């Protein structure tokens, strides 16, 4: 491994650029005469090897003659999947344990080994199952993988998936959040031992984590669900509610807010800080009390399963709720300061490409909605769902590939500059999809169609800076105003031109709530008339380590300048105070900008 690393360093010292193809050639050259395949070198082992030598054998590391500039160029070559932290933070997705669901949608998978709508073949679900769905273990294992790929792990966005968050008991929700923070707060040397102690406890309760054993245990119940002899909720209640080990675990999976808040305080100064915490729920489950609860957990974004605004299609798919519930959920979430991440599903039973496009345009265009982010993915037929019967009788069929790509491309072109389409597919294995899109590169195909249209694209992800560096002298600050039903929104963005295209280097979401809405909901809202709200500040570019200096977008003070401009806009509009829905790990940052802790938020007088 050292010989390969020295090959790379020699080329870099000569000023040569090493792209993926060149690196692959270097690896092949070193493996060419090695007959034993088990001894072949691989790119994925380069960074762990480099990090181990630098940490454990500094004399050997110094002999390589690496300065800070050379190390930066080296890491750019050997880092795995650099886009994972291109948005400025490292993301860790965790899954809650299987639990009865308050809904029974036509298209929703019924894998009894998973929370409703998730499948055991999905990568995050596999990790969760191997780790007993324990939040501490899931975070610990993901941190290790990110470090081995060469990614900074000091700024973390936690995404909690598993269906409807509020369906779980309150004590479990607080415990889950506490353990997420505890896993990040514990020093690495302590975390490894703590993780093994937690694993041993689950083993002592005879809770399996082996995929084959879990499949065998669930086989009978899964077969009954597939045959429609029992429901998902009934099967999950028997598998987990009647299992002595899971019952024992449930007794310990509870915590108090005092315990959670103690972990919050530690995380403010930890080496790995939480800069975002996300949960998912359904529109009809959102109330002011529940939003206050998740805010107290440290949550900054809510993923809301909208799927469709067409009430006839919602009924056709046995989906609870309606457009009025979505509008109310969005209004409350926005007033609380949350980022709103809507899930929309194309090709539902009863839909057409034309109705889907109209539905999407309504979501991003009508003042009652206008989310900040969207997951826009096509419905896929999965065995064990009620949709299988509709497919068999011919009342539902998947769109053709060209039809689907054209629809999604038109949706991208309809997306305003303040909205980001985060995903276009679920991580469902092709072997689990009976009918529907199986292309894992669907987004690339859609973007190619968008490029062929030669029409301008405003959507954020299409424009984001990604792994490139910002050029300070080319950055321009602009403000895009838009209206929602109960607030005036301002989207502040830093942009630059790169290869003839506009790139976004950072943005801020400013909300100016309407006084009549705040007055009408005074007993429910944690804010007052005269309060403006910063709902998000985000700077792109490779994730910068805490306290590092450098030339990337995250080192240019763009966030500070966005905050100051937002405060000036709010002040001129007559607002007296600025709230910010800060994450636990960013509280210190906002204190340095003149904000002070105030209940669920941080506040600064204008």
Question: How is the topology of this model organized?
Answer:
Blueprint: H1 2-13, H2 20-31, H3 46-56, H4 58-62, H5 68-78, E1 90-95, H6 123-130, H7 135-148, E2 155-161, H8 170-185, H9 188-204, H10 211-226, H11 232-241, H12 244-252, H13 257-267, E3 273-281, H14 288-297, E4 301-307, H15 311-316, H16 323-335, E5 339-346, H17 353-365, E6 373-378, E7 381-382, H18 387-393, H19 401-414, E8 420-423, E9 433-435, H20 442-453, H21 460-463, E10 476-484, E11 487-498, E12 501-513, H22 515-520, E13 531-539, H23 558-572, E14 577-580, H24 587-592, E15 596-598, E16 601-605
Parallel strand pairs: 1-2, 2-3, 3-4, 4-5, 5-6, 6-8, 13-14
Antiparallel strand pairs: 7-9, 10-11, 11-12, 12-13, 14-16, 15-16
Helix pairs in contact: 1-2, 7-8, 8-13, 10-11, 17-19, 19-20
Distinctive features:
globular; 24 helices; alpha/beta; seven-stranded parallel sheet; 606 residues; seven-stranded mixed sheet
Structural features, described:
By secondary structure, the chain is of the alpha/beta class. Helix content is 43%, strand content 18%. It has a 7-stranded parallel beta sheet with strand order 1-2-3-4-5-6-8. A 7-stranded mixed beta sheet has the order 10-11-12-13-14-16-15. The longest helix is centred in the first third of the chain and has 17 residues, at 188-204.
User: Mean of residue pLDDT?
Assistant: 90
Name the assembly state.
Answer: single chain
The share of residues in extended strands comes to 15-25%
Q: Could you estimate the helical fraction of the residues in percent?
A: 40-55%
Instruction: Tell me about the largest β-sheet.
Output: 7 strands, parallel
Q: Indicate the structural class.
A: alpha/beta
Query: Rough shape?
Result: globular
Parts with pLDDT < 50 across at least 5 consecutive residues: 543-553
Instruction: Please give the order of strands in the largest beta sheet.
Output: 1-2-3-4-5-6-8
The radius of gyration computed from the alpha-carbon positions, rounded to a whole number of angstroms, is: 25 Å
Distance between the termini: 57 Å
């Amino acid at each position: 491994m050292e010989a390969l690393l020295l090959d790379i360093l020699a080329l870099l010292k000569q000023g040569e650029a090493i792209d993926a193809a060149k690196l692959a050639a270097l690896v092949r050259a070193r493996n060419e005469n090695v007959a034993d395949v088990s001894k072949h070198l691989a790119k994925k082992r380069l960074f762990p090897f480099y990090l181990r030598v630098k940490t454990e054998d500094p004399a050997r590391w110094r002999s390589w003659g690496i300065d800070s500039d050379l190390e930066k160029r080296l890491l750019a070559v050997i880092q795995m999947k650099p886009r994972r932290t291109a948005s400025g933070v490292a993301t860790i997705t965790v899954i809650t344990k299987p639990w009865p669901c308050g809904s029974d949608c036509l298209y929703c998978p019924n894998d009894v080994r998973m929370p409703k709508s998730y499948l055991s073949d999905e990568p995050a679900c596999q990790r969760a199952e191997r780790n007993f769905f324990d939040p501490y273990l899931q975070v610990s294992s993901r941190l290790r993988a990110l470090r081995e790929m060469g990614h900074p792990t000091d700024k973390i966005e936690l995404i909690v998936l598993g269906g409807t968050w509020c369906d779980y008991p309150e004590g479990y929700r607080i415990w889950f959040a506490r353990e997420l923070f505890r896993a990040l707060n514990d020093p690495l040397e302590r975390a490894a031992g703590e993780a093994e102690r937690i694993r041993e406890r689950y083993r002592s309760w005879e809770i399996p984590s082996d995929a084959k054993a879990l499949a065998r245990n669930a086989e009978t119940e899964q077969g009954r669900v597939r045959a429609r002899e029992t429901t998902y909720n009934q099967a999950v209640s028997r598998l987990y509610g009647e299992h002595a080990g899971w019952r024992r675990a449930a007794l310990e999976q509870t915590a108090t807010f005092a315990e959670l808040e103690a972990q919050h305080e530690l995380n403010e100064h930890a080496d790995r800080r939480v800069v975002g915490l996300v949960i998912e729920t359904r529109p009809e489950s959102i109330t002011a009390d529940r939003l206050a609860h998740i805010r107290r957990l440290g949550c900054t974004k809510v993923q809301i399963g909208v799927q469709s605004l067409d009430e006839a299609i919602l009924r056709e798919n046995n989906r609870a709720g309606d457009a009025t519930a979505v509008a109310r959920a969005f209004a409350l979430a926005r007033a609380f300061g949350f980022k709103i991440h809507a899930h929309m599903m194309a090709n539902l039973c009863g839909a057409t490409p034309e109705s889907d496009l109209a539905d999407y345009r309504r979501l991003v265009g009508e003042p009652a909605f206008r989310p900040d982010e969207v997951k826009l993915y096509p419905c896929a037929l999965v065995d064990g769902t009620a949709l299988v019967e509709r497919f068999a009788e011919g009342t539902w069929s998947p769109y053709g590939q060209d039809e689907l790509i054209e629809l999604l491309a038109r949706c991208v072109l309809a997306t305003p500059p303040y909205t980001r389409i985060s995903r276009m597919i679920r991580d469902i294995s092709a072997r689990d999809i009976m009918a529907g899109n199986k292309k894992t590169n669907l987004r690339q195909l859609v973007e190619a169609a968008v490029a062929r249209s030669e029409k301008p694209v405003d959507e954020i992800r299409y424009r984001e800076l990604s792994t490139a560096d910002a050029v300070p002298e080319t950055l321009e600050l602009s403000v895009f105003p838009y209206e929602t039903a109960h607030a005036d929104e301002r989207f502040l963005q830093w942009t630059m031109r790169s290869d003839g295209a506009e790139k976004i280097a950072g943005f801020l979401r400013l909300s100016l709530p309407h006084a009549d809405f705040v007055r009408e909901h005074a007993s429910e809202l944690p804010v007052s008339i005269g309060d403006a709200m910063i709902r998000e500040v985000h700077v792109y570019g490779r994730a910068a380590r805490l306290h590092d200096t450098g030339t990337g977008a995250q080192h240019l003070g763009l966030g500070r300048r966005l905050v100051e401009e937002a405060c000036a806009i709010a002040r001129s509009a007559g607002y007296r105070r600025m709230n910010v829905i800060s994450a636990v790990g960013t509280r210190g940052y906002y204190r340095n900008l003149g904000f002070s802790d105030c209940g669920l938020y941080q506040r600064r007088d204008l």
